[in-house]
Write a structure and sequence with these properties.
The strands form 2 sheets. The protein has a 6-stranded mixed β-sheet, sandwiched between helices. It has helices at about 20-35, 50-60, 85-90, 105-120, 135-145, 160-170, 185-190, 220-225, 240-245, 255-270, 275-290, and strands spanning about 10-15, 35-45, 65, 80, 95, 100-105, 125-130, 150-155, 175-180, 195-200, 225-230, 250. The protein contains 11 helices and 12 strands. With about 290 residues, the protein is an alpha/beta fold. It binds NADPH dihydro-nicotinamide-adenine-dinucleotide phosphate. NADPH dihydro-nicotinamide-adenine-dinucleotide phosphate (NDP) binds near residues 157, 232, 254, 257 and 261.
Length: about 290
């Protein structure tokens, strides 16, 4: 695509930004769809974040993503915040409005679309979330929003799991979520219930190059898993996924979450809907890039 007077700019605010796959997603989309937009990473320090958002608006930038460590702090610079993003407490997508940017959390929406693409239902299901960092908050909101019957959130630092459970139970007005220490997962195996768990692996354990690391290595745990979703996508098959599969469970990685958070952001920026055929082309490019 030739850059000319009609080219619109999209970008990413983060620190660091060197390893991001977002330019690949968005520039591929512009290319395939013939939309005259360019997506650029902007290495932005937290001290300059508010000025960066203001400057982006003045420069007529159509939309932005925010990544680590700006997903919370950027909320103070927005004119409006989507309900889900506000409840999660994190924004990763800024959509231009008449007066400034509106914030969304397309990580949560992307994970939701990944589950739909695999036919994984959460309605009335028993769910375990491993981890209570930034990504786990989005997972927790999605599980509550999709009507899970019981959600156990397990974390090494129990206080972080407790805060998420309190926030989500308060927001949704029901006591669906329970916080536990990671080491206490054995209590869940003793429950005399036939239904297996849908498990989200949202810790950073198992991320390359620590491919053989896993948050729980007890095979009895995996006997109680029906579907395991690891948010990690590098390696493509994590140890957590291998243990799920060895126990006969389905297992998926987080690459489609990454894909769809980008697709949904692009849909919001351009007010369009992107077909699965186009999404599949972008997915293949992502796959190629993480395998290089
Ligand atoms: P955070 O740093 O916010 O959270 C890390 C989590 O991992 C915490 O719960 C932390 O526990 C836990 N953890 C880390 N090391 C250990 C350990 N040795 N033992 C026990 N627990 C540990 O990260 P994020 O929430 O942002 O990301 C989590 C993962 O999700 C990452 O691997 C990231 O790559 C992936 N991700 C994938 C996305 C996608 O699009 N597919 C999007 C976002 C994230 P504690 O609180 O006790 O420190």
């Amino acid at each position: 695509m030739e850059i000319n007077g009609k080219t619109r700019l999209l970008g990413l605010l983060g620190d660091p930004v060197q390893h991001t796959l977002s330019p690949l997603i968005h520039n591929t989309l512009s290319d395939i769809l013939g939309i005259n937009e360019v997506y650029v990473p902007f290495h932005t320090h937290k001290e300059g974040l508010a000025d960066a958002v203001k400057g982006a608006f003045e420069l007529n930038i159509l939309g932005m993503n925010a990544t680590v460590p700006h997903k919370n702090e950027i909320m103070a610079s927005l004119v409006d915040i989507d309900e889900g993003a506000a409840a999660i407490g994190a924004v990763n997508t800024l959509v231009r409005t008449a007066n400034g940017y509106k914030g969304y959390n397309t990580d949560m929406m992307g994970l939701s679309r990944e589950l739909e693409s695999y036919g994984v239902e959460l309605d009335s299901k028993r769910v375990i979330i491993l981890g209570a960092g930034g990504a786990a908050r989005a997972v927790a909101y999605m599980c509550m929003n999709k009507g899970a019957d019981k959600v156990y959130i397990l974390n090494r630092t129990i206080e972080k799991a407790q805060t998420i459970a309190e926030d989500m139970n308060g927001h949704f007005g029901r006591e669906t979520m329970t916080a536990m220490r990671l080491g206490d997962y054995g209590q869940l195996l003793q429950e005399n219930v036939d239904d297996k768990f849908v498990v989200f692996q949202s810790t950073s354990i198992g991320l390359a190059p620590n491919n053989e690391a896993v948050v729980i290595d007890n095979p009895h745990f995996y006997d109680r898993v029906s579907v395991g979703i690891d948010l990690i996508y590098n390696p493509f098959e994590t140890k957590f996924m291998k243990l799920c599969r060895q126990a006969g469970a389905l297992a998926y990685n987080g690459l489609r979450m990454l894909l769809y958070q980008g697709i949904i952001a692009y849909e919001l920026w351009n007010d369009i809907s992107i077909s699965e055929d186009v999404a599949d082309i972008v997915y293949d490019r992502l796959l190629q890039s993480i395998r290089e």
